[in-house]
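cache lookup: miss for this entity combination. No prior model stored, computing from scratch. Input as submitted by user K.M.:
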Amino acid sequence: MKVTQAVEIPLAEWVSSVGDHVSQGFSYFDWLTAVDQTDATDEPGFDVVVHLLDVTAPERLRSVLLRTRVPDGAAVASLTPVFHGAAWHERETHEMFGIDFAGFDDGTGLGLRPLLLPDGFEGTPLRKSFMLAARASKPWPGAKEPGEGHGEGLRSGAPSRRRVQAPGVPPPEWGPR
Amino acid sequence: MPVDLPMPRVGPLAEHAPRPIKVVLNWGRRYSLWVFNFGLACCAIEFIATSMGSHDFIRLGVIPFAPGPRQADLMVVSGTVTDKMAPAIRRLYDQMPEPKYVISFGACSNSGGPYWDSYCVTKGVDQIIPVDVYVPGCPPRPEALLQGIIRLQEKIAAESLSGAALRRKYAAHRTPSAAELSRPLLLDARHGPAGQVAR
């Protein structure tokens, strides 16, 4: 569905502000995730995002996207006191991004433990700094940039564009490909 | 408590049978392939389409009614194999009685396909189990699976089921024990690490 409203929230007011939105009618927890913004120029960190819905009038659904910026290494307060179901999403966000959720409680007392990744997986794969090992042994088979690759594009003079190193592509220190 | 039974195998009778009998045995096996569909993604839909009326692989002797891997001769891995799913595939393959065959159906199970550089996708199901026939495509059409089945049947017709030939085929792969086949796949975090799970 189309997100109609997005609100930036300071990190310290995260739980109380989400609670305020719940009391305003946004009582349906849709999802929670994070966005890696560690390459942002101001306030690098992770955006923790939660999507809430107001389902009191099903023909006129209202939704709100709540965001807070968490510096790398800092913990964000857990939403499990507000929504018990947020525990699944916070566990996934924790293992994918390595963000800690302070006060996480899903009723088992086992804390933030892996949810989806295979046993013994090391690293946080949805961070931009996570290297895709498969790309170290095999170059990207297609064109990364306009003008690369096969055929006419090579000769016709591609628009000059700064070569962008895509996140997850191992740097040259990883060896020849 | 698992009972330590050996896996059912083709006996010494088939191994030392005279050549005409081997031809008959191979002929019997190639047209009675009880198939077990390991459907993991969209390719499974093409597999189902192949089993339905318009393509109908039952006319080739492929029987899609195996209740589980223990009754199946052929496993068709159709879809994206993830590292999380890989132990389950290996285990269900181990449960199949020999002689057993595997068709890798589609780009994902052949090589990882469009997800070749993903952090969680296995780069081809042949990294965990031996594959007899690869069917390329994304997804392959049902006709491609029919062609793959015919190629597998040609392979079965040409094969010799002597003990040495079987050992060669499965040489790189360990033989599982009954305890391994019945171990729990998922560990309950409340019971500690593997091996300490209360039975």
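stored under new cache key. Chain B has eight helices and five strands.
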